[in-house]
# Entry
Amino acid sequence: MVLILAGGLELDETLFELQRDGHVVPLEPQAFDVLVHLVAHRDRVVTKEELMDAVWGGRFVSETAVTSRIKQVRRALGDDGRAQALVRTVHGRGYRFVGTVEEAGPEAGAGGAAAPRPPIRYTVTDGLHVAYQVTGGGPVDLVLISGFVSHLDIDWDDPRHVRFLDGLGAMGRLIRFDKRGTGMSDRPAGVPDLETRMHDVLAVMAAAASDSAVLVGYSEGVPMALLMAALHPERVRGLVLYGGYARRTRAPDYPWAKTDEERRAYVEHLVTAWDWAADARLRCPSADLAMQRWWERRMSAAATPTTVRALMDMNALVDVRDLLPSITAPALLLHRTGDEMFDPQESRYIAERVPGAQLRLLDGRDHLPWGDADQVLEVIDPFVRTLPELGGHRALAAVVAVAGAGAEDVRTALSGTGPGARPRSRSDGTPVVLFDGPATAVRALRRVLGRAPTAEGSAAAGVAIAEVSVAGDEVGGPGVDESVELAAAAETGSILVSSAAAVLLSGSGISLRPDAQGSRVVAG
# Structure
């Protein structure tokens, strides 16, 4: 087999030769074998130990021997230890070939030779199986949060998309997943809200043994990444946000988004016509015919018309604007100036409200980041490589306070509703329970308060949003105080939520009504 490498190089595994422009490039046999092994396993980092086994057959050799062969390979390729344009050193782990590779000869497919695809695995969250895949390698983890649908397997069938994924994988270990309801993941009844779908990120990071990661979100993935950064800052090392938004539909103070009428008309046309080729041309005007056909196949496999309609209806309710000032993770926002899906002002809006965020406007009309993958990757790479280590953090949380004779029973029951429920206390000793978000908190409260006849029925609850320390057992501040006040004012068996919590409940399917004092009441 002959492989075409970057820089006009040909790797002939049959003749055991590396050629450039028809001339043999001198390369010792062991160095040649090192290059072949790196190219064959370019989807991941290859350790020094693996190279020793593969090239030296398990014979004892020093790490210096491996390092020497790597230098020879780089010299032959026209690379060096400083540029690392083709062979990248992943400190403490090994090496990875990051250059382009195509298969020569008539037997090659139209898209060139595909690297062996790592396995697709599953993890369980909320009783659902969520598909995920890990590629690349390096000292930093990156979690890719895609647009509204994805398909882990078919994603590898378009060369430009592969270039985008491989580029991210060259920066660190790339963790991808199909959100519940789409791609290769389970289809739940109905469509979960943004807060519930955030649980997919947490579950996949846990399954991949990732303590913290850079979240790379594009399109619909941007508000989910922002929510994750606000609620779990200790897990988010940085944010890369491309072509996104903070609110899905237009408002007087958010005039760039599509109106609700425009959105409904678009959804109706898409679901009725099911013309994903036209959708590809809208999202990526540079898409050629092959990419349009791939997009058709990918989208048709990833979701049904009913799911697409439900997803877009849910996304229409997304509004994470109130979370932006609380985000502490370093953030890089990218947006192409001619993007017809989302106005660049939407990324500017986010950048102006997330402390310290950077905004880079790029030339072009493609909404999909891989329309010109290199244009995006060359901005992301230096940002990821210069991120600081994580420090101490404060996070937003939904604070639940309970009042009434059955309060203690309710709090005990809440603490057993899942790993997201965290018992804490106010500085005066008043007990509260923290949840990741208000939708999770309200659903847990409904299950507990709905039990009858039990002591839980003689209790009432208040739910508010507060910024609290991620460490320690004591919490305080206006949001915590508000939850206690709401619980005291609530009627037995009811749940009062704050105005900030009400905003975050948008799209959750939880109905609200105001009480006599104007506080938000969760309807039973």
User: Anything to note?
Assistant: The CA atoms of residues 224 and 276 lie 24 Å apart. The radius of gyration is 26 Å. The chain is about 35% helix and 20% strand. Residues 2-103 form a domain with the Arc Repressor Mutant, subunit A fold (CATH 1.10.10.10).
